[in-house]
Amino acid sequence: MSKKNLEYLINRKDNQYEVVIGLEVHAQVLSESKLFSTSATKFGAEPNTQVSLVDAAFPGMLPVINEYCIKQAIKTGIGLNAKINKRSVFDRKNYFYADLPQGYQISQFKDPIVGEGKVILDMPDGQKEVGIERLHLEQDAGKSIHDLDPQNTFVDLNRSGVALMEIVSKPDLRSPDEVSTYIKKLRSIMRYLGTCDGNMQEGSLRADVNVSVRAKGSKEFGTRCEIKNVNSIKFMQMAIEYEANRQVDLIEEGKSIDQETRLFDTKKK
Prior knowledge:
This protein is α+β, with helices and mostly antiparallel strands. The protein has one domain. It is 19% helix and 29% strand. It is built from 3 helices and 12 strands, in the order ββαβββββββαββαβ. It has helices at 67-79, 176-193, 233-252; strands at residues 9-12, 15-28, 91-94, 104-107, 117-123, 126-139, 143-145, 154-156, 163-169, 205-215, 225-230, 261-262. Strands 1, 2, 5, 6, 9, 10, 11 and 12 form an 8-stranded mixed beta sheet that branches. Strands 3-4 form a two-stranded antiparallel ribbon. Strand 11 (225-230), helix 3 (233-252) and strand 12 form a beta-alpha-beta unit.
């Protein structure tokens, strides 16, 4: 690893590789009720005690938007120096999983509530601007619990339907240190505005990390892999280091990188 001139490069023989990183940060909206129901959002409640008929997807239940969550998203967008869209649309994202009772997630696709913005990072070698692609609102899924019983998975729907802001950055980050600074800056903006408490240990701030590598000096992006649902800054940094080195090793061996979704095992690292 070379940190010369504060550049983060991976060295292999005579070759140097640059790491390109983009983040999809999932920030839980600070609100007393969910995005489309009046159920409470308090952390640490007994399992399945904060679930309305809407959250449990009983037939005939109709979602009603929580105006306060909309205001919180707009406030965050202003804090990110972003464009607030006058028109935004909710879409169904269909996927089938035990902790998603509806069989789809209500999210936003083509018309998000917040458009392009920027965050300024104070790095040791000066300021760096990171572009924000968009911020959209969506429902959180429930939680599958795999470690209480060797034969069964338990499902807690308390989190199902909780409002999330997904903040998508442009692929402007170049090192684990920049990622750390970016997450801390984002968290401090949202805490100041009172739109997200940023408590990563409670799962109210998590990120999907997109990582690719390219030869130093190249303008072309490499094939990216997405590391899902990382819930601490330290684990994000470790996952980036591992994944970037894995991709460089494949390139050096003359192999191709498959675009795929991966998980980071925090125990095995």
